[in-house]
Amino acid sequence: MLIAEDLLLLLTDDDTGRSATSGTELDVALGGALLVELALMKRVDIAGPDERVPKGRLVVRDASRSGDLLLDEALATVGRKEGKRPQSVVTALGRGTRVRLYERLAEGGVLRAEEGRVLGIFPSRRWPARDAGHEAAVRAALVTALRQGVALDPRTGALVALLHALNVVHKAVGPEGAGLTKPQLNANAKRIAEGDWAAAAVRSAIDSMIAAIIAASSSTVVIAGSSGS
C-alpha cells in the first residue's frame, strides 16, 4: 500500500468510519504523503543551486512510471508544477485524493462504504473497516518505533513524521496502547521525525516537504477559523 493509504487508515476510525482530523488538514497531509513517497523513490527532489529551477523548488528527477496510477498522476502533477514551492504542490496533490483512496481501499476489501445522510438531508459516506489486518500491522510497527524513539525503516519514519506534522500521533496510536504518557509519545515522535530514517540524499527534500505540510495545514486552519468568526 501507499504511505498515503496507511496514513488514511490510521486516521479513520475502524468502527465509525469517520476521520480523526479535519478534512482540509487530512487532504494536505495525503498530498504530502504522496510527495514524500515520490521523494523516497527518488522521483522528485528539492533543487539545489545552479539547476533548471530555482533553489529550494520542486524538481522531477525521474518521470518514468511507478506502476501505481495515483503515484503516476501525482508525479505528472509535480511535473506540471516543477519549479513551484512544495507548499503549493501538496495542496494540489491532496485535492480529491482522500475519496479516491477511500474508494480504492474499499475495492480492495480493507474498508466498506456506508451511505448515510447528514441531518437527514445531505448524503454522506463513511468508511468503517472491513479487514483491519494491514492497519493493525502498521500500527504495531508504529508502537514499536514510538516506544524506542527510533524508526527502523523509511515507511515507518515517514508515517511518524507525517502524523507529527499534523499533531495527531496520539490519535493514530493511543499513549496508553504504547505504554507512554502523551508528552513521552510526542517527544519520541519528534525524535523520530527529526531522525535519520531516510537516506541522506533524500532527507533534506523530505524535510522541506514535511515543513510544507505544516505550513499548508496551518493555513487551512487559519482560513477556516476566519471564515467561521
From TrEMBL:
Top-level taxon in the UniProt lineage: Bacteria
Full protein name: GPP34 family phosphoprotein
Cellular component terms per the entry's GO annotation: cytosol; endomembrane system
Organism expressing this protein natively: Intrasporangium oryzae NRRL B-24470
Compartments where found: Golgi apparatus membrane
One Pfam family here: GPP34
Membrane topology: Peripheral membrane protein
UniProt keywords, alphabetically: Golgi apparatus, Lipid-binding, Membrane
GO BP: any one term: Golgi organization
PANTHER family per record: GOLGI PHOSPHOPROTEIN 3 HOMOLOG SAURON, TRANS-GOLGI PROTEIN GMX33
Single GO term (MF): phosphatidylinositol-4-phosphate binding
